[in-house]
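ingest -> fold -> write
write: protein_1
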Amino acid sequence: MKTLFYIFVALFPGIAAAQTPPTTTRFKIEVEGGVLFQTRNEVQIPNEATATRIDLTEMLGAGPLPAGRLTLHWNLHGRHGLAAVLAPLDVTRSKVIDAPIRFDGVDFAAGEKTDFTFKFNSWRLNYNYRFLERNKLHAWVGFTAKIRDAKVAVEQDGRKGELTNLGFVPLLFLALDWEFADRFHVLVDFNGLAGGPGRAFDVSAKIAWDLTDDLGISLGYRTVEGGADVSSVYNFAWLHYGVISVWYHF
């Protein structure tokens, strides 16, 4: 069971923080788009000398890669809220490899066109509690129930090696909304998990502008870092997102 848990953590980079919940209205819908850059993304399956450690920043490209998500917030009652998040991420790139690769027990020859797939679809339900409520400052704590549809695959001339994962993991959630000037906010949110040889951290910071009482936009940065080092898989990555969001309260 622990091995499955760490495999799940290793396939972490699609983790995306639930956006800052609403404070007054009943519902909030938020659409986010952006670009993803990789400064590290290494995978080796299995985690032993017979397998090749693949640098996915080289095989898929460092970026920019497209990223986006849809979030629906529901202010249940008083300080309690829920959020549903749909965050797909599925990238496939082809590359003529200059050295042989052994992945998931399958051998891939040098000098041949090879397809690399990196899929991290994330479907999540978040519960949050607003524990701090002041005139210009609000903060939340909660947890996220996350369903993860993940795959890393290598394919060449009908030969294919892959690791897939569909499972559940709980994440700690924290968020902050500070209105530092009239209609302008600093938004910070965090989702995280760590244990044994695996970890996953997702932190974002944004500047937001309330265009009207119901409509707003934000611009910001997110960083995701983590992975796992167990016998069945080695995967560590550091990802960077530039994001822009539009939301509507109703």
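write: protein_2
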Amino acid sequence: MRLTSREQEIVNVIKKNPLISQDELAEIFDISRSSVAVHISNLMKKGIIRGKGYEFNEEPSITILGDCYLEINIDNKVESDSRIDIKYCGVPIEIGSIFTNYGIKPRVVTFLGNDDIADYFLNQLYGLEIDIANIFKHTSKRTSRCVKVNNDLTYRESLQWDDYLKAISTREWIIYNCDWLIHEYRFTDEKIRRALNKKTDNLPRFCTFKILDDIRDISDNLSYYSVVVLGIRAINDSTNIVNKLLELNSNSEQVFVITDGKSDIITISNNTINSFPLLPNQVFSIENKLSSFLAGLIYGILNNHPLRQAIRIAIGSI
């Protein structure tokens, strides 16, 4: 969780002297005792301190922002052997389950309707022991759903964009007060627009992913991002994408990844390009597993693993 400068100063003092009183903290920082109490309360809200005993939580704070939806996939490539599959999808479930497997409990901001599908997702998140206090549930609309024909999106029913923006606005505190913010790609420009109005030293590390069909879909705002994973149909089409990402690679902590999930993983970091060929047992579907790959990659990075090892963790998370 990102802290203000004063909160960080208080944390540093408490760590050196866990038995210090609020009166002593007030004297050290030349502020009122009530101001110290407010700072301590904020540290508890941010999950830095557990309870009044000044027990610290060193676990990185992660917030996941994205939709949950019902997907109906119709496969009729062969007329005599049509197949209809139904599955429950969504970034909060897919990424949240990866982090909980690693012992990290992320916070989730997602968007549900008032129906049985919403109840299913709530039960799934509850089963993962994920904090569901910040879920937006529309009282008069249905949870998002889509129909794909041969894996091509054909129909989609979802909330209006204004509904999403309203939900995000009322949950800005939880969205931005974290170490890592992982969200669906469609929120990229909106997240950066709002972030630029805030203090940059208190912003989380932004992360996102997308299956890229057109290089023009690469937002210039990705220059503000720490980790971005892009899925492409064929690795041979990556040259222009690599050049575009090199232009956006503004600092050494950024990691951009391009993969087709079948042959290769290309990374761009610190203006350096590396390639990691996929072995036959490492092949994965970018349509179904790109978000899981992102979650594993972030876990490797936040644990300070070298990029090569973080890529291995990402593959192992699929």
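write: annotation protein_2
Residues 40 and 49 are 8 Å apart (CA to CA).
The longest strand covers residues 68-75.
pipeline exit 0
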